[in-house]
Amino acid sequence: MDNKISSVGIVAAQRAHFDTPLELRSGAVVPAFDLVYETYGTLNAAKSNAILVCHALSGHHHVAGMYAGQPKSLGWWDNICGPGRPLDTDRFFIVGVNNLGGCHGSSGPCSLNPVSGQLWGADFPMMTVQDWVKAQARLADRLGIDSWAAVVGGSLGGMQALQWAIDLPQRVRHALVIAAAPKLTAQNIAFNDVARQAILTDPDFHGGHFYQHHTAPRRGLRLARMLGHITYLSDDQMGEKFGRVMRNDSGDYNFGYEVEFEIESYLRAQGDKFAGFFDANTYLLMTKALDYFDPAQAYDDDLAAALKPAQAGFLVVSFTTDWRFAPSRSREIVNALLKNDQNVSYAEVTSNYGHDSFLLAIPHYHAILTAYLGRIQL
Amino acid sequence: MNWKLDRPDFEVIAGWVQPGERVLDLGCGDGALLKLLIETRGVRGYGVDIDDENVLAAIANGINVIQSNLDAGLAGFVDGAFDHVVLSRTLQTIRRTQDILDAMLRVGREAVVSFPNFGYWKNRAAVLGGRMPVSEDLPHQWFDTPNVRFFTMLDFETLCADMNILVRERQVLDEQGQLVTEEHNFLGSLAVYRITRA
Q1: For a Cys staple, A242 with which of A59, A262, A271, B130, CB 3.0–4.6 Å?
Q2: Residues of A with catalytic roles
């Protein structure tokens, strides 16, 4: 049993180059681009066992396993992917991809603009979820995958799964839409804008061309991440984990602005860590893609009309304490699918861990995914 | 298949559902009834259940299941979406009885309701003997029962009349799952009704 339930082991990223220009929702065109991706498991002869994993705001192509000689490089969703795990690599061929505009190897603000010979920086075009689906479809073509057995994602990744099912219905047999929403609320957009303002007003931002100044808007990015992180956790969980515990053993206040409460220490450390490796332009672009996501917009705000072309079976999963994308937001997706008489199952998983629950190995949650994926016919 | 032994009401319900119909099964458990209807009648539909283990089992059974509390009504379902809305052995666990009956007949052309009959003679005898009944169709003790509404066939039919609901057909079973043909409210342990708007 222990041997069966294990990680995918040592993995390596691959790169695909695309020469055909990609026209974006904004009207801009990316003349040529690279996507970095990883695969786990084996594509079967019929090429019918492929699953695409779409990443969220700060994710990337490195879903599972680790890089040779880097024991700390475990993939961001390793707990879900491997032999005997929900994304069972004994059965499925799993593809993880870094989205266009990302900062982990795919073309984006911190890659070279082939026209100018400079880093793209703020000139890299704005992306939408639709654009990502188009780019991912190019990768599917390259891999010879006509239709995905499933497209899977949490949060912004779930929105990509939804968009895939709408835009390329014949290429998605199942869509697993986890901890997502059919569009952002004013409150969601507000959080994103405060995060963006933190970056945009950082003196080290230099209009997005900070690379030339050999600096980065780390203070802004750190604040953006600290704010975001608060919204990914639940109040209960923060209370349990940190409460009002103080760093200082004396138990009395310092009457100053240095770190006093454990939660301050934790958030600052999270912010510092994130600002050390993530690209500020990518963060801006990803939050904008979230804000712009609204498949019902073109259908007079009728989500059911937007979802009508989808042929996929849907599994929609939410978490009870997720207030960033609350269960009621998942129910909007479910209700639209019900209205269309489409195949959908919905599970509302009890969890204390807020929005971040989708990344955790919660036994019932993984059992739901395993049960659903297990019934997919290849 | 052993569903006949486990759930004699399934056979009655299956007999009322026509091939190709759209069915909503409220309190669907592991989805066994829907699976039976899909396999034998070629129906399409959804199950609804609140319990984690039931939702998991229904998904494993290949059923479309929506995790939801029936006391919250059927807000996500549009009017007239189903031919049959089934509520098997669940009505007695729902607090807002009239709301769920209204909701079922809003989203469905016809509803099928089965429930344990508290008027069954053994149940009456138990109460006369000073104890709350425990039987094949009322398997719980008073302190751990999920049931919150206790009613007889006569009570149910009176409510239907008050709510302008028409009883189209009814089948009554004894504890062994055999059809009861007389003195239904006295000899029947489990009642199955087909109801519609009058």
Answers
A1: A262
A2: 155, 322, 355
